[in-house]
Design a protein that fits this description.
Chain lengths: 205, 253
């Protein structure tokens, strides 16, 4: 199984790549958004550090191809900013997100922003992903959060100073997590492995 | 609800972890990768590497240490020391840091905070402030590893750093650093009240009770620990147990 991490130019990918590799999958890092979703890609990872505007700009030339691949069933996990890129757009910066999940990204309604630290992940129901790999407490580092049009997209919630927002969302085979599983110690790494196990059972033909 | 964090700091020089008091009398305490991963297993919420040599020739050494660490560490890693520009921030992030702390360079040219925040997001930009009590005039900002006084007031400077893009303040009391007499609660409290970003208190931890005091009465979001852990005076587990007893929200290891 070939996992491609789309590198949009910012941030630490080492921990994420190592966490994925420890599930015995082949991991590649790709800076071109079109090549990132080539037919040889079995799983797409949108990593989580950077600013929305800059990331959307890097994504733009491959936006349609990536959107089509995800709509076609490519298992995808977006982490933090990568989750936010699954939405239509963001108040943080200009440019279009992938629009895989209807909704916008807006600033946290809290006195202390960014939210930096360990916070809860509360699944809404018996989602198989969180059931197989619970992450009761995860590491977040974000000023902006996703506001899906429909709560049906939400797999888990969290809350910061009274602002409740999605910790995880799903649209088909695309999952987004606001926290950083690769920075959430052993439970976070186990969560990534569980996502990859699911992806393996639903690989594209 | 966000938990309060226990942050373990490793001062790195020439690829080794060292510890001294008031930035001098350094001694070797171990290998950075080994220590960082050991502290993660013990329940540390975050690790900080401070490059205390911060010379150009050792910068490559630190980035190499960061790379090797990030491949084995699955909690956040902050790197600081000698970061001058947004390009330096980018290099540290690419090497394996999740956050980068900027100290002297921000004082010399505050725009560096904005440039880094715009490129990489405020959540990875940490303004590191070394504070020294200045008698009746409050706390003064020091730079160059605590060796050089500036004209800046610590509270004013903290507010300015946040205005310019810092997403977190790492606040070190030079007076307390290594003294193990407790954090400077008053300093921490005035800064935490003045800014809307998380404040990491540093300098002076002598016991688990000191950590609870700075998180509770000092209003810090996180407490930085170094010497008392490296020397085995206490453990991350004991500190977190004390926090739990004090009814502070804590992540179970």
């Amino acid at each position: 199984m070939r996992v491609i991490v789309f590198d949009y130019g910012a941030g630490n990918l080492h921990s994420l790549v190592k966490a994925l590799e420890s599930a015995y999958v082949e991991v590649g890092v790709e800076t071109d958004p079109v090549r990132a979703v080539a037919r040889t890609t079995d799983v797409l990872v949108l990593p989580g550090v950077g600013a929305f505007g800059a990331a959307a700009e890097r994504l733009a030339p491959g936006r349609d191809a990536m959107r089509a691949a995800i709509a076609d069933g490519l298992p995808t996990i977006g982490i933090c900013l990568g989750m936010q890129l699954l939405f239509d757009g963001s108040d943080e910066g200009t440019g279009a997100g992938l629009g895989v999940i209807p909704g916008r990204v807006t600033r946290l309604h809290a006195a202390r922003v960014p939210q930096i630290g360990w916070n809860e992940v509360t699944p809404v129901s018996a989602d198989p992903l969180f059931a197989s790999a619970p992450v009761p407490m995860a590491y977040y580092a974000n000023s902006y959060v996703c506001r899906p049009v429909s709560a049906a997209a939400v797999l888990a919630w969290t809350e910061h100073e009274g602002d409740r927002f999605p910790a995880a969302v799903r649209a088909g085979r695309a999952v987004g997590v606001q926290f950083h599983p690769e920075k959430s110690s052993a439970p976070g790494v186990a969560f990534l492995h569980a996502f990859l196990r699911d992806a393996r059972t639903t690989e594209r033909s | 609800m966000l938990t309060r964090r226990v942050v373990v700091c490793l001062d790195v020089q020439g690829g080794r972890v060292v510890k001294g008091t008031q930035f001098v009398n350094l001694r070797d305490v171990g290998d950075p990768v080994e220590l960082a991963t050991r502290y993660e297993r013990e329940g540390a919420d975050e690790i900080v590497f401070l490059d205390i040599s911060a010379s150009a020739e050792e910068r490559g050494t630190l980035l190499d240490v960061a790379r090797r660490t990030a491949e084995r560490l699955f909690v956040p890693l902050t790197i600081g020391g000698g970061i001058r520009s947004a390009d330096d921030v980018g290099a540290a992030l690419r090497a394996g840091a999740d956050k980068v702390s900027i100290n002297s360079a921000a004082v010399a040219r505050p725009a560096v905070l904005t440039e880094a925040a715009e490129r990489f997001g405020a959540q990875c930009v940490v303004a590191s402030i070394d504070a020294k009590w200045n008698g009746g005039a409050g706390w003064r900002v020091y730079v160059k590893g605590g060796r050089e006084a500036t004209a800046l007031d610590v509270v004013d400077w903290a507010v300015e750093c946040v205005r310019r893009g810092a997403g977190e303040i790492l606040l070190t009391s030079i007076d307390r650093d290594g003294a193990r007499t407790g954090y400077d609660l008053e300093l921490t409290r005035v800064v935490a009240q003045a800014v809307h970003v998380p404040v990491v208190a540093s300098g002076g931890a002598g016991s688990a009770a000191d950590v609870c005091a700075v998180l509770d009465r000092g209003g810090a979001d996180a407490a930085l620990l170094a010497g008392i852990l490296h020397d085995g005076v206490t453990t991350v587990g004991a500190v977190k147990q004390a926090m739990r007893t004090a009814c502070l929200p804590v992540r179970a290891a």
